[in-house]
Amino acid sequence: MAQIGFIGLGRMGFAMSRNLIDASHSVWVYDINPSAVERIVALGGHAAASAAEAAANRDFVVTMLPNGPDVEETLFGAGGVATALTKDTLFIDMSTIAPDMTDKIARGLSAMNIRMVDAPVGGTSEVAERGDLLILAGGDASDVARAQAVFDAVGRQTIHCGENGTGTRTKIVNNFMSTALNILTAETLAFAEGAGLDVARTVDVLAGTTAGRGFVSGAYQRKVLNHDISPEFGLALAAKDLNLALNYAAGLNIPLPVGAAASQIYAMAKAEGFGVNDWSAALETMRRTAALPRMSFDGQ
């Protein structure tokens, strides 16, 4: 049983602290919302009068707060948490915040000889309720291993992303893809409805193809990330199919801004000679646009 201070009892933090209690840890909680604290106490937690009290003499201190400035203020400002920590306390920030803020916090704690792991989570509040979160941990391997007692109580899997800051960066990249795909999904279903299709049936179709199953663990893993861009599905054909959809939608006066932006990337990839290659070769176009080192491909 570990002594844990937990600061931040929003929907995610409440579920996580409850799961820590259920795992037989001694959990001291603080939140600006007294009712949330009272509910955790009713479940077996301990109320702290301040964030600093929640952090004092604990094995672990966890923050789950809305924004980076909230974490910084809690640690180094009026919250006074940093001064309550000792060299034997492992600080774990599980908030989703800006990478430069994570770096700043890590430097500040390091100057005080306090160890830190940044460990934002993947999953909704419902996933948090079940204790099935994906933990994206950044920090020294020994610190991540030590934090596993906390992670096991709130999550189903921990991925050690690398040094301090990599957990936060991985979460930001993941969130970029999921939030952008959310808009593309909305755009697609509006297009389907505008085209006179049954949306429920369209969803069934999408769920059975790459459109619904996704690319990362499919075409990208098999092809471009494996240094193979021989055409499984040609990029020029993909561009043609996208433009067919854009032209049809235009005739229906249905705006497809994400699709229109994607068509420009396909055009760039074709201009670079990738039209005859697999559609996942669009990744190399984006890499070159970002001035990243060129990839080598089998047979090229």
From TrEMBL:
This protein's UniProt keywords: NAD, Oxidoreductase
Molecular function in Gene Ontology: NAD binding; NADP binding; oxidoreductase activity, acting on the CH-OH group of donors, NAD or NADP as acceptor
InterPro entries: 3-OH-isobutyrate_DH-rel_CS (IPR002204), 6-PGluconate_DH-like_C_sf (IPR008927), 6PGD_dom2 (IPR013328), 6PGDH_NADP-bd (IPR006115), HIBADH-like_NADP-bd (IPR029154), HIBADH-related (IPR015815), NAD(P)-bd_dom_sf (IPR036291)
Name this polypeptide is given: Sulfolactaldehyde 3-reductase
Active site, UniProt feature: K171
Species for this entry: Paenirhodobacter huangdaonensis
Pfam family, one: NAD_binding_2
GO biological process: organic acid catabolic process
Location of the 3-hydroxyisobutyrate dehydrogenase-like NAD-binding domain: 165-284
Start and end residues of each 6-phosphogluconate dehydrogenase NADP-binding domain: 3-162
PROSITE patterns named among the record's database cross-references: 3_HYDROXYISOBUT_DH
